[in-house]
Amino acid sequence: MHPLQHHAADITRRHFFGRSATGIGAAALASLLNHDLASGATNDKSVVGPRVGGLPGVPHFAPKAKRVIYLFQNGAPTHVDLYDYKPKLREWHGREIPAEIQQGKRLSTMTSGQTAKPVLAEITKFARHGQSGATVSDFLPHIASIADDCCFIKSMHTEAVNHAPAITFLLTGAEQAGRPSMGGWMTYGLGSMTQDLPGFVVMTSRDKEASCGQIFYDFYWGAGFLPSKFQGVKFRGSGDPVLYLSNPEGMSRGVRRQVLDGLAQMNELNLKAYGDPEIATRIAQYEMAYRMQATVPELTDFSKEPQKILDMYGPDVQRQGSFAYNCLMARRLVERGVSFVQLMHAGWDQHRNLNTQLKIQCTDTDQPSAALVKDLKQRGLLDDTLVIWGGEFGRTPFLQGNIADTKLWGRDHHPYAFTIWMAGGGIKPGMTYGESDEFGHSVVKDHVHVHDFQATVMHLLGIDHERLTYKFQGRYFRLTDVHGKVVKEVVGG
């Protein structure tokens, strides 16, 4: 919606409230936020129903997916060791990668000055899996077991050569911080399917060895220039998932309700006076926090999950803050109506520890990733839930370091070809799309740029990426900037 339309809507509501008694105005405002709030009623579970909020006319066409779970692998998984099998690497192991393959392309400072760039053979073993025959490393046996549910895109490419700009680019459409994240755009356009939980939830985890020092910046799930109610709500990895979830001693739920009603009346006066959308955000977030006090404890209680489900996600599933725990939480969130869940797991940045850390990282993430897809499928949720697995770029087919020092083998950042996979949500299952050259260095067939990927995700959600825009500082912005095309070949019929 155009900002002037937002403003006009606010003016109309303010005039209505201005003609009403203060108590009636507060009740009407509360009813806009949630039909149960005026009575103080609560539910044990969130109710999944029609979308609340969103823009008129969105979705633009019938969606194939209603929700997204993004399993973001911070640090860049090595595509040539996990998915993109290249026999040429073993043939050329230890020899200088051909100059015509490198083409003088930009690298990070960690290898840009390295005089020798010997080809490094894959450190894993590959096999074909399922009826689709997808090639998957033996480090990922569980993901291999769902190969026929996945669409592997092996022709992804990006522009940034360092982590934070590349992650920001994938999640917001720009390398510089300040743009709305993908989840923010989705909830802005489509609204939410629950009134008891945020529409956009984020959880983070990292490798137990803390092998890399990457930071989870808040702008990875920020609202940018959109109203701040569209930013992701981060669930913490220890203690209460959300700060101040529990009432302080002596504060009953009834008293909390009275306090919030008083705050709502005062904030309503400011909203009438100034029409600032951030005041409306504050009112809505107070009410959301109140609802979450009732819903989040049940959400995080795994005691009623069957043991076979817990076992499916692996031994780490009960450890709060682990990737396995977050994957099970993601399933519980989407079945309660959350539209966009973003899990971010760090530890893939193997510059000097490829021979040790890659196996550990795969062990931590492989089983939970596959379990999530299987769990959604058996519950009938996979058809309209899009699961995405991938990092911000790939890793070099040549060695970072000395070929003789096997303990310190590594691979540098590599934006020119990498692999992601998607499952469910209208994606064609059991297919591989795109191709890199014989060294896995550059895309040679069916290129998929970051903006193409973003356009495709939006298309699956029923959004025309060129039409979902927001005017800021005199310009209409969108997630895909001025680029992007839908990769129709990976979209199911």
SSE blueprint:
Blueprint: H1 3-18, H2 22-33, E1 67-74, H3 79-82, H4 87-91, H5 99-102, E2 126-129, E3 134-137, H6 141-145, E4 150-157, H7 163-172, H8 182-190, E5 200-206, E6 233-235, H9 253-274, H10 277-299, H11 307-313, H12 323-334, E7 340-346, H13 354-378, E8 385-390, E9 394-395, E10 413-414, E11 418-423, E12 431-433, E13 435-436, E14 443-445, E15 448-449, H14 450-460, E16 470-472, E17 475-477
Parallel strand pairs: 1-7, 1-8, 4-12, 4-15, 5-6, 5-7
Antiparallel strand pairs: 2-3, 4-11, 8-11, 9-10, 13-14, 16-17
Helix pairs in contact: 2-9, 9-10, 12-13
Would you write up a description of this structure?
This protein folds into two domains: 1-32 and 252-299, no CATH class; 64-241 and 303-490, Alkaline Phosphatase, subunit A (3-Layer(aba) Sandwich). α2 crosses α9, α9 runs antiparallel to α10 and α12 runs parallel beside α13. With 493 residues, the protein is of the alpha/beta class. The two termini are 30 Å apart. It contains 14 helices and 17 strands. It is globular. Strands 1, 4, 5, 6, 7, 8, 11, 12 and 15 form a nine-stranded mixed sheet that branches. It has a two-stranded antiparallel sheet with strand order 2-3. It has a two-stranded antiparallel ribbon with strand order 9-10.
